[in-house]
């Protein structure tokens, strides 16, 4: 959780209670009309305030609800990437292709991008492992279109500001298309999607653990949810040449089989 998020939660509490009265705030948090998960976030934020001010309180504990992770259609992610402005569009494509945490996607420097090998070196966050991940030719070419005005690729004020701008983009797009599902697509949704799709293709949980940079397999199991895909959810393409096959793979299609001397590919819609 970032400093901005902590402050946001504290501002919420300050509007309905006295921050310097721990018992008052504890009562407010425990009776607040929200999920147990959000109550835990409020308690965590206020705990920092208590320690900073030298106050004393008995921090309440909450049990988070076990909810299924939202997995969007790939076409919905692609629509967001297509409609966003250049820098944000590239950032979202990086999230989609690599499955990295948004904090990790925010950190790459130009020297972390290997043009020859088409890879990006990931500096870990949240106690993740460092790793080097492949990226598509399309993403590489788009990254190289960004101005090199600073050491880091995404040279903006901060990630929180960038996230707020993204929320404005997906909210506006959801209203325009009449698709409320798009409002549910946060930065972390791209990570959930990548983990789910990769596991669906490989059935290799250790590969997903490495991909996500997890140190513990239990964390991987939280992020990885099997989804049953029907044939109606796939777009199918045919490649007659190596060049056509390469283009399909670069576009995210996966090889299925070869029939009558042509290669069949598919991608979730």
Percent helix, as a range, is 40-55%
CATH homology group of the largest domain: Intergrase catalytic core
- How do the SSEs run, as a string of H and E? HHHHHHEEEHHHHHEHEE
For the CA atoms, what is the radius of gyration?
22 Å
Approximately what portion of the residues adopt beta-strand conformation?
A: 5-15%
Tell me the number of structural domains.
3
Task: Tell me the CATH topology of the largest domain.
Answer: hpI Integrase, Chain A
Architecture of the largest domain, CATH level 2?
A: Orthogonal Bundle
Distance linking N and C termini = 33 Å
What spatial form do the alpha-carbon principal axes imply?
elongated
Q: In terms of per-residue confidence, which ranges show pLDDT below 50 for 5 or more consecutive residues?
A: none
Largest sheet: 3 strands, antiparallel
- The first-level CATH class name of the largest domain: Mainly Alpha
Strand order in space, largest sheet: 1-2-3
Helical region count?
Answer: 12
Give the overall pLDDT as a whole number: 88
